[in-house]
Amino acid sequence: MKVVVIGGGIAGVAAATTAARRGSSVTILEGTGRLGLNRSLLPYVLSGGFPPEKVQVTEPNALSREFGVDVRLNDRALDVSSLSRSVRTENGRLDYDSLVLATGCQYLSDGPKGLSKQGVHLLRSPEDYLALSGSVAALSRPAVVGPAPLSLVVAQALSSSQRVRVFLGPRSLHRFSPGVGRMLVRAASAKDVELIDADADAVVGTRGAEAVLSSGRVYPCSGVVVLPKSCPSVPPSGCATGTYGGVLVDRWMRTSSKDIFAAGDCTETRMGSISLPSRLHSSSRVMGEVAGSNASGAAVRANLARSMALRIFGLEVCAAGVDIEEAARAGIDAVRVESECAARGDPSDGASVYASIVYDRPTRKVHGIQVAGPGALSLSEFCALAVASEMSLDQLAYHESPYLPSFNTDQSPIALTAGRALARVQERRVEAQGTHLRYR
C-alpha cells in the first residue's frame, strides 16, 4: 500500500514510521528543510535544558535508513484530490492509496501592536530561541506574552535573575481549577514571576519596548518575549473542518474524505456539540501512530486524553481531559469537585496536594482531572488513562492506589476527591427524596 504523509512534525513522523513498520511504501512531504521538530521542548533551549539538536526527534537520513521512508524536504503540498487520490506539490504530483494530513499549525500575524519595536523577541523557530538565549542577561524586567503552558516554561527560564510578568490571556489560568490555579500563582510569585490573566494590547516605548499596555494599565518592562498565536495549517483537501479550523477526525483518525486520515495540531476531535484541538506532544504522537496504522489497513482507535505533565516554578502539575468551561460548551451537564490533602512529609510545613475532577452529572463519567503539588507527577499517567478510558466517579473512588507512599492518606488525592463527589451526589439524592416526601 502506498501511503503519503504530509507534514514532518511529531504526528507526521509517528504516522510515517508506524505505516512503514506495517509494510507500506511511505513518502513523507515536509515544506521546510527540517524534520521531526518537537516544539514543546523549544522553551527549554533558553535554560540550557536541551541543546538545539535535541529538539528534533529524528533526522531525515535515519528515517530513510531505518524505515525505508522516502523523505522529501522543502516540498510543500499545494492541494489534495480525493477523487484522483493524488497530491499536488511544488515539485510535481504524487499518487497515494491512503493519505495522512499532519501539517500542524501556522503562526498568525495578528497580536499586540508594536511587535516591530526593538526589544521584542518573536519565538517561532529554534533559531529564535537561540537568539533570545544570548540576550537573556540584558532583560532586567522582561514581559512574556502567550498562552500556557509554553509561556510559563519560557518565564521560568527567564526568571533566574530577574522579575518577569506573563500575559497569559483571559482563558489560560481559567483552564486550571481554582485550587490548582492558586497553587500555580503562588509558586510563580515565589520565583518573582507575576501571572496576569489578560491579553497584552500593545508594546509601547520611544526607544524600543519599554512597557506593555493591558486592560488599560501600563506595565514597565525592558523587553517583550512573544509566543505568537497559531491556527491549523491545512492544504485544500475537501475534508470537513471543526470549530477552530482544524480537520475533523474521529477516534480512528478518519476524516470526512475517503482514505484520508489526519493527526496532530491540524486536527480537532468531536466532543458533544463542539470540536476541540489537541495541541500537545502526547496527543500528537498517539494520533500519528493511529493514523499511520489505519492508513496501512488496520482498524485501531486512539484513546486521547489531552494530557500534560510538568514541573513549573518548583510545582508539580498534571492534567488530562477538559476543564469545566470546555465541558459546558460541549453540552455536558458538567460538575467540578476539588479537594485538598496533605502531602507527604512534615504536616507542619503546610504542603498540600490539590485534585480536581470534572464529571457529567447524569452519568458520572469523568471528563477531566487535574492534580498539583508534591507527588502530582506520579499520578500523571493514571490521570490520562482514567480520562481516555472514560472511567466513572465510582471507579475512581474505589480504585487501588499504588502511589500511596507519596501521600499522608489512605487513598490517592484522586480517589479522595472522587469519594467526596460521590458523597455530595448522595446528599443531593437524600435532599431530593425529602423534598418529594414533604410535597406528597
Overview in brief:
It contains 11 helices and 26 strands.
Attribute tags:
440 residues; alpha/beta; FAD/NAD(P)-binding domain; Enolase-like, domain 1; 5-stranded parallel beta sheet; 11 helices; 26% helix; 27% strand; globular
Task: Please write out the topology.
Blueprint: E1 2-6, H1 10-21, E2 25-30, H2 43-46, H3 60-67, E3 70-73, E4 77-81, E5 86-89, E6 92-95, E7 98-101, E8 105-107, E9 120-122, H4 126-133, E10 142-145, H5 150-158, E11 164-167, H6 178-190, E12 193-196, E13 202-204, E14 211-214, E15 217-220, E16 223-226, E17 230-232, E18 247-249, E19 260-262, E20 267-271, E21 274-277, H7 281-295, E22 308-312, E23 315-321, H8 324-329, E24 334-342, E25 352-360, E26 366-372, H9 380-388, H10 393-397, H11 413-438
Parallel strand pairs: 1-2, 1-7, 2-3, 7-19, 9-16, 10-11, 10-16, 11-12, 18-20
Antiparallel strand pairs: 4-5, 5-6, 8-17, 13-14, 14-15, 20-21, 22-23, 23-26, 24-25, 25-26
Helix pairs in contact: 1-7
Structure description:
This protein is α/β, with parallel strands linked by helices and 440 residues long. Helices cover 26% and strands 27% of the residues. The strands form seven sheets. A five-stranded parallel sheet has the order 3-2-1-7-19, covered by helices on one side. β5 and β6 form a beta hairpin. The longest helix is centred in the C-terminal third of the chain and has 26 residues. The model has no long low-confidence stretch (mean pLDDT 88).
